[in-house]
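Re: the pair you flagged

First of the two:
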Amino acid sequence: MIDAHADVVGSLLRPTGLLEAREALAAGRIAPAAFKAIEDRAVDDAVAIQEDAGLEIVTDGELRRLSFQSQLPEAVAGFGEYDLDAFLWGAWHGDSAAGDVTRRRPPNLGVVHKLERKRHLCAEEFTYLRSRTRRVPKVTLPSPSLWANFWSPKRSLGAYPSLDAYLADVVDILRDEVTELVRLGAAYIQLDAPHYTAMLNPSTSAYYESLGWSGETWLSRGIEMDNAVIGAHPDVTFAFHLCRGNQDSRWLVEGGYESLAAAIFKGIHAHRLMLEYDDSRSGSFEPLRQVPEDKWVVLGLVTTKSGRRETVAELSDRVREASRYFPLDRLAISPQCGFATSILGNRLSAEEQSRKLRVVVETAEAVWG
């Protein structure tokens, strides 16, 4: 199992050249082969950024994705038309620089026919990453119940008789993806599950309940589906990431883990809990008392939403505070979320991103040696 005390969540800032190349590809101004060469070079740079910071775990920065979750509809037919707002809708809050913004749910969003996989979701990402580093390559997948966001009682009933039937197919696709990643040699896989903490917002909770499941059912059924995706792979470490929304330096909800801890911390079969803890919106460390001692807790103490300069001393104090509630030797540290969970990216520079990765490693070395 992975026992690193310094970790990384997933996404990195997209370089300007990659964003421009993505637009040029969509407009037909460059060929796919030329775009892939640019994309590959961007991934090489992302790996170098993480290795230079001293991380023993690296991702490809999720640079090949529109959003952290977009590889599913990109690889699977049946989701109908979608754009970036399909992954971003909601009432987002920001500081005085970012401001607040509301993105509406696209009116035509919804699965429209039975899901059919066109290709694997992450095989290209993983095999390329594996070939470019000797560090531990980490690959991320979306939690299956997150895909309730693509369910529409008006548009989807012709494809699936119920939300349950639709999500069962999502689970099958993601479980098969895990099996393929393991066959290719993946040893560290993460499920991203921001929808659980989103339910701390009454309006979000009401939306999910309008689809037919109570809040309690969302937790129990959701975790059951997550565990089905994780399956039984004794040589693979699984992480489970919770945050409160992270787009363009904005957030969706606030609140501690108290109402979620018993169900998620004890119920999920993941080995490492990646928990957002970069500011007061995440509440106290006390819910960590409910984490079973066979798991690790990765404290997301370093914010990705701004260029704030965290120090080793400050972060070390926070780690030791958390150790009042969970054993120090099974704690780790990471950024609180990705730096660019979609192509929008957060409002900080590449240099600030690199400094934050370095302070994660430096804090781990100071605390654990």
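Second of the two:
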Amino acid sequence: MIRVSDIGYNFIHFGGLDIRRPRGEDRYLLIFFRSDAEILIDGAYRPVERASFFLYPKGTPQFYRKTDGDYLNDWMYFDLEGEDNYFQKLNIPLLTPIRLRNPAPLNTMMLDMFNDYFFDRAGAFELLSDKANSFFHRLSVSYALELGAGRRNIYLNELNDLRNRLQSFSFLPRSSASIAKALHMSVSSLEHTYKALFQTTIAQDMIRGRVQNACILLRNTDYPAADIAAICGYENPEHFSRQFKRLTGLTPGQYRSGVDPRGR
């Protein structure tokens, strides 16, 4: 669980700033630099470009500055509970500038968390924790794509083709693991990359493809609904009916008859 203790968005320091915290903080600090600045790394101040993220672990000295004009940044202080080696598992480096060519999706997520931070409502803490977790998973995928710029177009083409085949029901994979193996990716990397590119999951697109194919069969054949469920990859007709209604708002029978109980 990620416990967010403070957050700022698009905050401006007029005339610059010079942060010096020799003992750091007893919590993590994420910074998004909206201005060029300098960070003390290995005993020397080094430039960091705008649109860069930087993660300070707990207890690490924090020295960063901008002395030649106004300074803008986002930040988030947080702690990790029950998350051993969290950033190592996500392959997100600590104490290293992470510059992304398109940080806009992450900026939007940061603004969303900033707005949620000030709402006092039931479940707000858990919601913010979930959103912070999603943020770091998105950062992980974005950073991996940035590092693998040479292979990025390959993945984009492969995954675009995969998505088209899933949604058209021309391909019904056994599992995400079988897809990952064919693409020479880990399952976690595949799922994170797919979600980052298309804002949905492989499983959700598989369900959409199955339901869309079921709609075609319901309109154009006399097959019983149970047979259509089997054709579309469902072992349980009741499970098929539940997913069909969740996506279409109708049962298979209502869809086939053209009767919409909602009066539409």
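The radius of gyration is 24 Å.

-B.
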